Amino acid sequence: MISNEALKAAKDAYDIEAQCITEMKDYFDDEEFSKAVELLANATRIGTCGCGHSGIICQHLAHLMCCIERPARFISPAEAVHGATGYLQPGDVMVFASRGGKTGELLPIIDICQKKGVKIISITENLESPLAQAADAVLKQHVNRETDKWNAQGTTSTTALCMICHALQAALVEVTGYQAEQFAVIHPGGAVGERLNHKKLGEK
Length: 204
Hints:
204 residues; alpha/beta; five-stranded parallel β-sheet; 9 helices; globular
């Protein structure tokens, strides 16, 4: 059995992150969120970009978009400045995620997007940051504290970012009228695919 201190830290992590998600609603901006959803709904292609933990969640966001048939890919910050932004065309959308909004690797990519006429959605805690100021829509990432005792690891902040991505997808399903029958076609695998395709065939 691990120590009581370790068990308490583990249980406290649940409370910290639950509190964060609850508080995030207080920072929800209807107008900015609506702008972001409309941009994503109308984009032919979507790119996502971030570093570290933010980059990992941006990969998740790209997959979520593909799951509702919004063509998307994660563009590595390292590859973005070596030609990968050629994926994006005028009117497309790039989603940037950076808690501080000043991640150095992302700033040159903003310039590329602006020169190409690519719309920018920024997700950041710092609404005064370069990333926020360059955005066509900016979504506030609220974080109460990280779960580790030093308040340093990308834990709660990762959950907060993931929650915003899930909210975007939920809204897009409504805006685009995406149906489970469509998802069944592209997701025949696993238990979810089996359930969706049985329903499609009228089976119980």
